[in-house]
Amino acid sequence: MEAAPPPPRKIIHIDMDAFYASVEQRDDPTLRGKPIAVGGGGPRGVVATASYEARPFGVRSAMPGARARRLCPGLIFVKPRFEVYRSVSAQVRDIFSRFTDIVQPLSLDEAYLDVTANKAGIVSATRVAEEIRRLVHEETGLTASAGVSYNKLIAKLASDQNKPDGICVVRPQEGEAFIAKMPVRRIHGVGPVTARRMQALGIETGADLRARDLAFLQAHFGSSALFYYRAARGRDDRAVHERQDRKSVSVEDTFFDDLTQEARLVEEIDRIAANLWGRIERSGGYGRTVVLKIKFADFRIITRSRSFSAPVRSAELLAETGRALLRGQLPLRMGARLLGLGVHNLEGEPHGDDQLALAL
User: Fold this and answer.
1) Which residues belong to any copy of the UmuC domain (predicted)?
2) What is the pLDDT of residues 264-310, one digit of tens each?
């Protein structure tokens, strides 16, 4: 006799609302109701998080600070306090642990939870999510948004639907229709470059993606085709699992046009270094080895590295090392389609089918 299929999972994605900015507004009442950005406002500064008051002006995370100031002249920059954010994140993780041990943190401010069999014995995953959100607000003074669904892909998309301080539930029978209306650029796993390629092929929504067969997607997207094919049908079999300790922290960007000019290459490395430094500080993942990655127009990849006797603990040293590694390869043999920078040898612990009925 054929074994019965396993019951659907009950997955929650919790995403704290404008986390760093909300912590700053909580701790400093003079900032409440004002457009603020956590990060650096200088020439090489980068916005880590913008408050909801700043977002209507177009201020977004990872945006250069100088551009953010131009978009929002009244923007208030606040220096990050990552130790405080880590402490608040630990409070939130403690709340998660009261309901399940199956928690997969993605960063200080978001995580997946598998509550299929939760400690509280609550049948409804929606009720679990609401209780978590209530406790987060009660114990930290902050708000969190939640997505509740039967897999990780849809739970993450759902958590963004009713921000801030909202919840969105997508049941198994609703998953395919939910994805169909979603712009492909919002589907987790479709990056900006891939989204532009899809748009050029006339694929703008999940419905457009579903209309393409697997052979078409394989011809255009190679090894990622099966993921896109399944995603368009609301399918994702990935389990929630506790993240293993990372061996590295890195940031890389693919460019629409291949880069050849030294000034532009250095500018991009500086920007990538600034983004990487923010990620390093958020995660606490300081490393002794800085690694440069270059992918050329012919898709050949090279890496170059420099190791230090102690972990790199300054944004200036990180950027300086990245520039030196890059300049050691100039002039490039051909245009660069991707640049990346990472730190390795970390010290310490880094912190960042048939559809069945489901009682969500």
Assistant:
1) 11-191
2) 999 999 999 998 988 887 777 788 899 999 999 887 899 999 998 88
Q: From CA 179, how far away is CA 208, in angstroms rounded?
A: 10
Give the β-pairing of 144-149 and 11-16.
antiparallel
CATH code of the domain occupying 176-231: 1.10.150.20
- d(CA 334, CA 359) in angstroms, rounded, equals 55
The whole-model pTM stands at: 0.72
Q: Span 225-231, mean pLDDT?
A: 94
Backbone angles phi, psi at 58, to 5 degrees: 95, 5
In one letter, which amino acid is 12?
Answer: I
Question: Is 110 designated active site?
Answer: yes
Q: Where in the chain is the domain with CATH 1.10.150.20?
A: 176-231
The CATH architecture to which 248-347 belongs is 2-Layer Sandwich (3.30)
- Taking only the tens place, the pLDDT of each residue in 85-96 is 989 999 999 999
The 3-state DSSP class for residue 284 equals: coil
CATH topology of domain 19-82: MutS, DNA mismatch repair protein, domain I (3.40.1170)
* Annotated binding residue 15: yes
Closest CA to 25 of 186, 128, 140: 140
Contacts of 196 (CB under 8 A, 6+ apart): 256
Residue type, 125: A
Q: Where in the chain is the domain with CATH 3.40.1170.60?
A: 19-82
The first and second tokens of residue 172, run together, are: 């198994």
> Beta-strand (E) ranges in 218-332?
248-259, 286-296, 301-307
d(CA 48, CA 64): 10
| Active-site residue, selected from the candidate residues 2, 24, 83, 110 | 110
At position 224, the amino acid (one-letter code) is: S
E strand map for 87-242: 103-107, 110-114, 144-149, 167-169
DSSP assignment of 286-297 equals EEEEEEEEEEET
